[in-house]
Each structure stands twice: as C-alpha cells, then as structure tokens.
Amino acid sequence: MIEGLKRLEYRGYDSAGVAIANGKTLKIVRSVGRVSELEKEIAGRGLFDAAGNGLTAALGHTRWATHGRPSTANAHPHSDPSGRVAVVHNGIIENYAELKAEMSARGNRFASETDTEVIAHLVARYLSEEERGGTGAPDALVKAVERTIARLDGSYAIGVIAAGYPGVIVAARKASPLVVAATAEAGLLASDAAPIVPYTKEVVYLEDGQVAVLSAGAYRIRRGGREIAPSVTTVEWDAESAGRGGYPHYMLKEICEQPMTLHRLVSELVTDPGAAGAVDDPTDDGTAPVLDLEGSGLTPEVARGVSRVVLVAQGTAFHAAMIGRNLIERVAHVPAMPELGSDFRYRDPLVDESVLVIAVSQSGETADTLGAVRVAKEAGCPVLGIVNVAGSTVARECDGVIYIRSGPEIGVASTKAFTGMVAALYAASIQMGLLRGILPLAEARRRVNDLLSIGQRVDAVLAESQAVRRVALKYKDAKNFLFLGRGTGWPLAMEGALKLKEVSYIHAEGYNAGEMKHGPIALIDENMPVLVIALKGRRYEKIIGNIQEVKARGGRVIAIASDDDTRIESLVDDVLRIRDDSGVMNSILCAVPLQLMAYYIAIALGRDVDNPRNLAKSVTVE
C-alpha cells in the first residue's frame, strides 16, 4: 500500500495516512507532508507482524487539500466518533455543511475541517441501522455505503473499511476516477492504474453510480443495489514505464521520452508508412487511405456534416486545443474554436448535431472537460475524445477516441502528453480534410510525412538541451517572464509561461505578440526577460518588429528561431534554434525548449519539479 501511495503521490502530497483493519478494530496513522513522512510514522507502530498477520484490509490516501488546511487532523483516512469506520475520499461533497449540521444535531462531534468526515459519520450510522435490522456481513456494510452515497451531492471516489468486517473494502464513485482489480491473493483499489499495474494489468474503471465490493482475490460490481458484470480493461503499459528510469526527475524523463511516444502514436495512426511517401505514384487512383482513425468517431458522415468544431479542454490541453484550431482550419477548412470546458459547460453554448466537439484531456478525468462532454452530448453533438488514459471517463463517454499513447505521465507539469495531443489533432485534421474532399491525397500524404518525421526531429532538438540549460541558468533569478508568439506561437507562448510558473514559481505570462502594444509593453524594462517564438514565415517581420520594440525599452530577449536565420542573432540576447521546415509540426519542436527552459530554471532554484506546490496532476474536482 505504501508503494502504491508513492505511485499516486503526484495526485496530492500535502498529507497522507493509512487505516488498517485487523478484525475487530481499526488502526489509523496520519501525517503531514509526503508519504515518506507517513512511513516514518508507521515504523515501529506494530500495526501487524512481519508476516502480515492481523492485516485483512487497508486503505491509504495522499491528500490535495480542498476543505481545510493541510494538517494531521484533516488528513485521510477519516473515521466516525466511535472509530469503527474509516473512509478515504477524493472529490468534493457539495452538501457537506447541511449533512454536518444534521449529524451535529444528533450529537456527533467532528474532528476535522473536511467535507469527507461526514461520509464516515453517515456510513457508521447506517451500518448500525442495518445491523439492528438483521442484515449480516458483509451486506450490512455494502448497504450502509449505498445509503450514504444516496445522500451525497458533488463528486466522490471513496473507499470504506469497518471494524468487524474483516477482508472487505467497499468503494463507490461519482465524477472522480476509481479503479479496481484483483489478483489471486488480493482485491485492489486505486485512483488510477499506476499502483495496480505491478500486480495485474486487468482493471475495471468504475462508472458513476457503481459500487465495488473487494475481498481477497475478488471484487463484485453493483449498481442500484444489484450486481452487474464488470467491464474489464487491459492496461497497455507496464510498471517500469511508471518509474523514473534512471532520470533524476519524472519531468525530465517525460520530456526525453517524446521522440518515442510521438513515434508510437504516429505508427499506430498511419496505415502504411511506406505508402505515405508515395505522393507521385502514377498508379494511385486517389482513394488509398493514409491514416487509420477507426474508433475515433470521425466517420465520413460526421466529417461531411460538420458546420464547425469546438475543442474543449483545460490547462495544457487547452493550449493544445488552441493549436488544434489552427490545424483544423488550415487543413480541413472547418471553422474551429477552442473553449475552456469550465466556461462551455455553464454558458448555454449554441451547439447542435452539426457541431463536432473534440474533448482534449491527458487523464480523461478532468472534471470540467467531462462536464463539457456531457453538455455536448445532451445537445446532440458528435463528440471525439483525444485522451491518454484508456478506459477513462472521457474516453468512455465520447462517441470515439484517439488515444495519444504517451504512457503514464507522472510529472505534474504535462510535457509528452501536450505534444501527443498536438500530433493527434493534426492527424484528425488530415483525416477530416480527406473525408470532406478538401485535402488532395498527395497533400495528405505530405502532411502524414510531417507526422512520421516528428519523433526524429524532436530527438534533434533534445540533442541541444545543454544550450537551453546555459540560457536557463542566465535567467534563473528573474522575478517575471514574458512569452510572446503569433499564430501557433501564441498558444506555445501561453504553454511556455504555464510550464515556467508551474515548476519554478516565477511569475510568467504568455501573450499573443499582436497584443503587446495593448498593455504588456508597459512591463518591459531591463529586468524583464522576454522569450519570443520567432520562426521564419509569414508572421516573421511582425515578430521582428515586436522584438525591436522590446529591445528599445531595455528588455532582454530570448528567441526560439529557425536554424538558418542569420538575422536574428544581432537583434536578441540569446537564441535557441530548431530545424525549421515551415510546417505545422514546428509547434511540437518549439514546445521542447520551452519545457527544458522551465525544467532547468526550476532545478537551479531547488524546486520540486515533479510535485510543485499547490498543484495536483489531474484536476478531478471543479
């Protein structure tokens, strides 16, 4: 369980705790800080002997605070006043204040500031009622949990154990991810598959309203008080993939994995890599496919009937969606608009069955993106998911999905998932253009060649990582940073700023360079580094103008520039070069030095890049 908590620590790390059932009693140990601190607390406690005797069921939790500051009292697991029931919970109980008032009126005293504690109180109350009514074990605990979740508004993934119910864990889920599995010896429960994969790759992603009953070597799935057949998913990656693999940090490992993950994604999407280059084949009748997006939901009927595309996402995925807008409009000639899921879901958006909605999410569990998917489905929109995690809620609820195949991404600051999302959006754009008859096959094959070469090109950028490190160390003491770009450079500027502030805690902003004179230029002085995405192309002269305006005000400029640009060196303070082919895949190449810049600055400042303060990997609550 401790090893499993370490694998989940990227989801929350302000406190941790365990509850152990050894038959008639529960033992709970909690601590503030990382799981390593919890390990120290547990050592020497004599919770069970070396052979594990006395251990029949256990729950562990790492917390990302929503209700109540990080403290031992607010750490999970939580218990009822009698200490009979222990509960761990991810999510937010929206009606906890009313429930707490009700329980307080009954004489219950609360020991924490959390919303979670009311769950333990309710389970204990209903458990006593079930037992008095003659319900036997383990059904009494199962029914107590089912009665409890009927009272809860909001989101939850919960695990419950109780004294007197040896070898049983009851779990339930609504709008927060929960995974169950079993080996010959154990039933397993986790927030995602990472802690389970070392033991089995066969998992069940619980759906909203489902309850799981775990015992040694087995699980049962229930809905509405009745057992149902589980839907089993095979995890495609192994435990080694979720390790650091010799790298000092997950973030650096995942940056360096991008050539491999991009190659894997593209190889699965291209029907015949050899044919993709045969653009001058005189025997080609113009109908041979170059991409295989079966299962994506991008059918000819959908592609030809689309009036516009809406891309819903949050955070880094939103920046990928912004690039996706450019790709879809340029390649498929369909109007497209990126939307924050948190805004889309509450705005009464004007969408119907002619609007294709594309949901972009690494985890497939992002609460606001999932809410946007459900709004789109209710409006009759076809919905395509671009997701990393197979079996995730977004993947299940969309009409089709393109998996980005990045493998487990443990670092809180997303890197390889971002570039995978952009590549998948490019593939979707090409397919849409083909199906709509807008994109000639020869042009589609040229664009697929862009995709096929991207892994190798990213490798070349990574080979220059020490040049990025030298520049990063030069600017590590900056208090503020400005990132500028135009076209796809604008969302890249936003992504570069996000990465820097996430892991280094330096204030940074990303702007469309066309907006610089509309406010941000007031911030420019000799203490303001400005990183400009300045590749050659139709916007190049405008970007050069922006650079000259910054330099005229004493600003220091770092440029990401084309490798054959001989002009830029005399205009800026530092240059990071990429091998520019004037294609749309340059957006992926530019992302790499932005990621490395954030990483090297953060490391120089002594930051914990894998677990930055106040952040969690998957935002599964609003």
Please render the helix and strand layout as text.
Layout lengths: L1 H6 L7 E7 L4 E7 L2 H8 L14 E7 L14 E2 L5 E9 L2 H10 L11 H16 L6 H11 L4 E9 L6 E6 L4 E4 L4 E4 L11 E4 L4 E6 L2 E6 L2 E3 L3 E3 L15 H7 L1 H12 L3 H4 L23 H6 L2 E6 L1 H18 L3 E5 H4 L10 E7 L5 H12 L4 E5 L5 H5 L2 E4 L12 H20 L5 H22 L2 H10 L5 E6 L3 H16 L2 E6 L16 E6 L5 H13 L3 E7 L11 E5 L7 H19 L18
Parallel strand pairs: 15-16, 15-17, 17-18, 18-19, 20-21, 20-22, 22-23, 23-24
Antiparallel strand pairs: 1-2, 1-3, 4-5, 5-6, 6-7, 7-11, 8-9, 8-10, 10-14, 11-12, 12-13
Descriptive report:
This protein has 19 helices and 24 strands. With 622 residues, it is of the alpha/beta class. It has 3 domains: 2-235, Glutamine Phosphoribosylpyrophosphate, subunit 1, domain 1, CATH 3.60.20; 250-462, Rossmann fold, CATH 3.40.50.10490; 465-604, Glucose-6-phosphate isomerase like protein, domain 1 (Rossmann fold). The strands form 5 sheets. Strands 4-5-6-7-11-12-13 form a 7-stranded antiparallel beta sheet. Strands 16-15-17-18-19 form a 5-stranded parallel beta sheet, sandwiched between helices. Helix 14 packs antiparallel against helix 15 (441-462). The longest helix has 22 residues, at 441-462.
